[in-house]
Amino acid sequence: MYEMAARKESDTVRRVMWLTVAVVGIAVAMLAPEESRAQAKCPWLNAATAGGLLGGDVQMTVTMTPQADADKATDQDGYSTPEQRFNRPDALCEFSRKADSGMYTLRIDVKTMTDPAEQFASFLSLCGGQTVALRGIGNEAVQCVMRNNPDMAHEQVIARVRERAFVLTVSRPATPARNGLSDDTRNIAEQVAGSIF
Amino acid sequence: MIRQLLRRRFSKGSERPEKAVASNAVSSAPPLNRGIVLASLAAVFGVGCLFVFLPTTHAFSDQNPAYSTDKFQQEAQRKQYAEKVSQSYNFAFGKGKISVPGNGAVEGNTFLQPDAFPNAKYCGHCHQEAYHQWQQSLHRNSFRTPFYRASVNILLNTKGIQFTRHCDSCHNPIAVLAGGLTQDSVVDRKFDQDGLTCMTCHSVQQVQSTLGNGGYVMGVPAVLVDEKGNRMPGIPPDSEILAHLDRHSKAVMQDLLHKPEFCAACHKANLPKTLNEYKEIRAFTTYDEWQNSKFSQRNPLTFYKADFTTCQGCHMKRAANVLPEPGAKNGTFVSHRWPAGNSAVPFYYGFDEQLEKTIEFLRTGNYLNVDLFAIRKGSDGKMIAPLGSQPFTLAPGEVVQTMVVIQNKNIGHSLVPEVRDLYEAWVEFDVLGADGKEIYHSGYIQPDGMLDSRAHSFTNRPVNTGGIFVDNHKVWTIHSVAYDNSIQAGRSTLVRYEFQLPQDIKGTVSVTARVQYRHLRQSYTNNVLGKDHPDYPIVQLASRSRILNIGENPAGAPDPLDNPDWMRWNNLGIAYLDQQQYEDAVHAFGEVVKLRPDYADGYTNIGLTNISWEKFGSARAAIETALKISPDNARALYYHAQVERRDGHYEGEIADLKKVVAQFPQSRDARRELGVTYYQQEMPHEAMEQFEALQAIDPDDLAAHYNLSLLYRRFGMKDKAKEQLTFFTLKKVDPGAPTYSQDFLRQHPEISNESKLWHVHSDMDHGGIADPGVRGGGAQ
Fold it and tell me: What is the C-alpha to C-alpha distance for residues B32 and B339, in angstroms, rounded to an integer?
């Protein structure tokens, strides 16, 4: 009888606790500005697609970047119209998957340039190795051919979509077939460019 | 760590990027007050607790186990997948509605794993030619191109990804049916790159109707049927297919693939209320245009006749295959390039072969005829026509009006079809002296790549409620169309250019009219790529030049590339008719019957013009002449019925229309008119039969919706009556919408001129040469 009462009391406490958690959770979710909830996602690629590339479930980290001068610069230069930029902040998206053979990563860094003609060169200069021009990704794109160690392959694409530059970097286990830019990394680069368009 | 995190997150004035980390998602946010901070902390904890008990998000991809060929296992897999997707899917348009505002449907009525679709590489193991062609085709690139993404991204960013199901029901059906178009998608979008892959088209089992917007019913993809002919979903090894080629063929080659209705599933679109929150607006009607063209042989009212030709007949022509292709017959294979007008996508991707085939397609199809038909001189205003068959003189300093007739001769749809707000087809007209010096030029490209704003272009201008041109293809904001200068299949248009010959001109002048095409409009390409893009191709579709002498111009032999003179007059008559210049149209058709007195349609043309002009007596005489020459002529009978109605001869009217329907059971016009007559004659059952038949041909026909709502109500079928009335109300043009067009035209005088049914292009600042139909004059 006593045990039953204690169990009942314990159940009640547990229910109240969970109810409190739920109510607080819902309240905060409603109070939080919509954009902050939306920004939790990577604007350029979803986690499932990144997971498809990296071979499993991924952790995602998104860092939004303020764009102070974007409007002023782009309108005058005839790049994006305001509606094209709507709700598309610059962001750094990092996806990672820990595997027995190491950490697999996909990194997408998108930045708005105030003067693309000048500034894109500085993005291209990030490539320490040889660059190979790619067609069909944004306005212009290059593959940065990186030095790979025997275990891990690194692929990088640097591209421009109108006034925005992005750098895509993929690190995965090396395979004999993975010479140059792999089809799936190229597809990711196309998807990122497509989302920026 | 959490304190550190919060300090970083809410510190004011920091220039550093803000960063936060959670187990599966991270966000930044503007500064909030302390209460909300604490609440956020509790929420993070609470949500964290909940996440502990939730499974990790999975990507559905090739990483999953191989798709099973066991039916029960497949169904279980699909059910599991659908339940998973449904948990986070935005059912904004109703539970279970996975593709609205699009019309795409799938067997089983729930989400389908993207991996159920074999990818194109799989098909390409054997179908090498098809795979090679498809890779550069517009169907393959239906989703990924910047020209599409730039537009659909605006919809995604402004209204929400759920609205993009309208566009992607056709541009990316796998994404729609897999449930990928939702805010919290768990779908690996690797299939985006393949757009319409082999097994999207080859899995369609039926079309729901000809409403478009993705009006297909997708089957669960199967590349084999069993011995009983039942489809066997799954991705078997090549060896199994090779062992059962007949069963492979049965699985992937539906009869439907050869029919124009198949194309209608996507090459027809409307803007539904669920998209624009306004009303249903017809967007493009390529299928209907084909159905009304001579190539369908379903419409008795076309000006000319032709052999039956489907969409596939032009866009999937057979040619010798270069690569191994099991689908080839006698060394030829139907094109899986689907050449049409899009030169922008192959240019962007560097698909030289596709670009070459596209240009070849556009130039060699004899689709258009450009006729420098006549001139009129300022000295007397009389028309000298047809040029080449009539002698005339020209003097220095003379004001000359050139009448260019452009015939949409062999296109099975309008020029230009579909998204006219994005395409750019226009007339470039120039006059050069013998020294090559330019005397007049219209339709040129400006240094910034923009088209001469006063060019005669075959385009339209959709506008929003502010009377502003809907740029960037934001179709959900369209409320009206300020003008539409497209030429329907089989019809012609008359474009007038006026210029003055220099006082000191000697020798000859060369006059040239060209129809040019650019995919896409320069301002749209600028919006997509910025202004620093290379020049996109301009393709000359058709042209005609004539050398005119200063002095005497004798009549000469007809040019073999020109239409015969009777047809030249006929096309002029058609153009005048469409510009509502009835007197001139009757005159032009009169010239036709002078040259071809045996040509029944020439008399019918006089008759139908007089009907439009409300001269029913003259109409009857002409049409009866046509019927004497050709007693069972359906076209003449149709217009005869109209004259009979006007004279109150209802029995004769019904008899005529019944004969038309007997010959052309899919004639929309005859069904509609017969329905109206039956209704007026208190024959409701017969009227209902006709309107239902009409609705089966065109599910959007307003007359059918309206009359069926009345008829169903009369017979106590209240639900059906209400449904039809709803459709009528939804689809009827908003009577207030034209005011938006007027606002636009007031702001754009150069386009306002184009919106007039007839107008003259000229650099001259005087009134120009009088048009005989409007200000007197006549033909020479």
Answer: 56
pLDDT tens figures, B659-713: 999 999 999 999 999 999 999 999 999 999 999 999 999 999 999 999 999 999 9
User: pLDDT, tens digit, for every residue of B552-590?
Assistant: 999 999 998 899 999 999 999 999 999 999 999 999 999
Q: In the structure encoding, which two tokens stand for residue B706, read together?
A: 């309206």
ipTM value: 0.86
CA distance B146 to chain A (A): 6
- Asked whether the beta carbons of residue A27 and residue B39 sit closer than 8 angstroms, the reply is yes
B489-498 residue pLDDT tens: 999 999 999 9
Domain ranges across chain A: 1-31, 40-196
CATH classification code of A40-196? 3.40.1000
Task: Please give the interface size between A and B, counted as residue pairs whose CB atoms are below 8 Å apart.
Answer: 185
Quick check: is B677 in a domain?
yes
Count CB neighbours of B70 within 10 A: 10
Domain that holds residue B175: 71-282
B551 in a domain, yes or no?
yes
Residue of B nearest to A138 (CA): B146
Gap between the Cα atoms of B255 and B234, Å rounded: 22
Stated as kind and residue range, the H or E segment containing A168 is: strand A164-173
Cβ separation B190–A52 shorter than 8 A: yes
User: B361: helix, coil or strand?
Assistant: helix
State the smallest CA–CA distance between residue A2 and chain B in angstroms.
31
The whole-angstrom distance between B193's CA and the closest CA on chain A is 7
- Whether B271 and B161 share a structural domain: yes
Average pLDDT, chain A: 80
Model-level pTM? 0.87
CB interface of B with A, residues 186-245, below 8 Å: 186-190, 192-193
Same domain, B450 and B432: yes
Out of B264, B282, B300, a domain closes at B282
Taking CB atoms and an 8 Å cutoff, what residues of chain B touch A185? Answer: none
Q: Which of B462, B468, B466, B467 is nearest to B484 (CA)?
A: B462
Contact B58 A57 (CB under 8 A): yes
Q: Which amino acid is at B229?
A: G
